[in-house]
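TASK: fixed-backbone design
INPUT:
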């Protein structure tokens, strides 16, 4: 078993240049999930060494990968801090993609025969202004524009050619924008791999321009993180998302992916409102291996959630339960985390390898 850990850690051990102030990482990517198969690529991280309550002067996060099911993805994120007296930051993001995805229609009880597989491709540009108001209280304004083109549609039912099932309009994709304002309390000791603190917020947004879709978005969440003796950490999150108006079907709130309801795969649950609660217990340990000491985590998690036509409908719908086990390899002063999870639910199981904690 020790040899397996050593081989795994050796492959993912990053090319690292660390200084007192900054950590630089170049990390090979291995990605596994039910929708997109197995993938590989590279991830680059350039971030300040974690300092609680600090706003970095700048930080970069880039990745690119390809998968066996025709997915490719490139994402670039830059955070520029120290603006206007050091209490503001600007986060810029470019995201370009093509991948297969499933749509089971709307509702809290989809069946396997409802599945439609489509192939979107496109890009998204996002800008977010973050203003620190007081202590750990932040006001954030964000806007993004997205273009999506859908070419291939495949389902188990013999739908007429060129017709997207489940009553979906604009089934070839289109252009959409969303502008939002949020008030957030963020006392986490670190954004990417928190061990201590709270992260809670309220966000509301709406499309402003005459694109192909006009809709509004509302989101609330509370997450808590704590670590205690013996290397144990616990994390929990409660959240809800709801839309109004006419959003694209692929932007509907959903449950069932690498971060939400990991035992319910392929974004199986979608509707105009979604809510869930997640809990995770992690045990951290050090494993000395040749030429380095690696930090690992073993994890168990439990999740429940439901969707509905509205927040009231979702609140009365039947709960779906998911749970599982996982492991993490912590890299570069907690600047990055490689995560593997195996989730189970009544609708099946999902195995994931990806970067970042689930929440």
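OUTPUT:
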């Amino acid at each position: 078993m020790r040899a397996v850990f050593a081989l795994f850690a050796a492959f993912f051990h990053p090319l690292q240049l660390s200084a007192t102030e900054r950590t630089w990482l170049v990390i090979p990517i291995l990605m596994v999930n039910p929708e997109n198969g197995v993938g590989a690529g590279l991830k680059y991280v350039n971030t300040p060494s974690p300092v609680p309550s600090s706003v970095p002067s700048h930080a970069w996060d880039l990745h690119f990968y390809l998968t066996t099911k025709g997915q490719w993805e490139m994402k670039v994120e830059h955070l520029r801090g120290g603006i206007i007296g050091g209490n503001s930051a600007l986060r810029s993001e470019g995201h370009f993609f093509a991948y297969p995805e499933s749509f089971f229609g709307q509702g809290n009880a989809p069946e396997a025969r409802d599945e439609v597989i489509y192939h979107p491709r496109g890009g998204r540009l996002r800008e977010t202004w973050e203003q620190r108001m007081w202590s750990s209280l932040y006001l954030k304004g964000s806007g993004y524009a997205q273009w999506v083109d859908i070419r291939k549609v495949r389902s188990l039912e013999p739908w007429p050619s060129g017709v997207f099932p489940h009553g979906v309009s604009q089934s070839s994709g289109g252009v959409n924008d969303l502008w939002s304002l949020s008030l957030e309390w963020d006392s986490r000791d670190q954004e990417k791999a928190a061990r201590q603190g709270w992260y809670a917020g309220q966000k509301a947004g709406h499309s402003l321009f005459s694109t192909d879709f006009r809709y509004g978005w509302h989101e609330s969440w509370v997450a808590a993180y704590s670590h205690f003796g013996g290397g144990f950490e616990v994390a929990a999150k409660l959240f809800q998302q709801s839309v109004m108006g006419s959003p694209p079907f692929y932007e509907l709130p959903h449950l069932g992916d690498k971060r939400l309801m990991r035992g319910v795969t392929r974004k199986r649950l979608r509707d105009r409102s979604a809510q869930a609660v997640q809990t995770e217990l992690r045990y951290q340990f050090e494993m000395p291996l040749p030429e380095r000491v690696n930090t690992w985590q073993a994890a168990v998690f439990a999740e429940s959630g439901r969707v509905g036509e509205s927040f009231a409908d979702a609140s009365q719908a039947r709960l779906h339960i998911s749970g599982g086990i996982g492991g993490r390899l912590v890299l570069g002063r907690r600047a990055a985390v490689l995560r593997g999870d195996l989730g189970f639910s009544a609708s099946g199981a999902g195995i994931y390898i990806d970067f970042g904690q689930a929440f």
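COMMENT: The helical segments are 2-12, 311-316.
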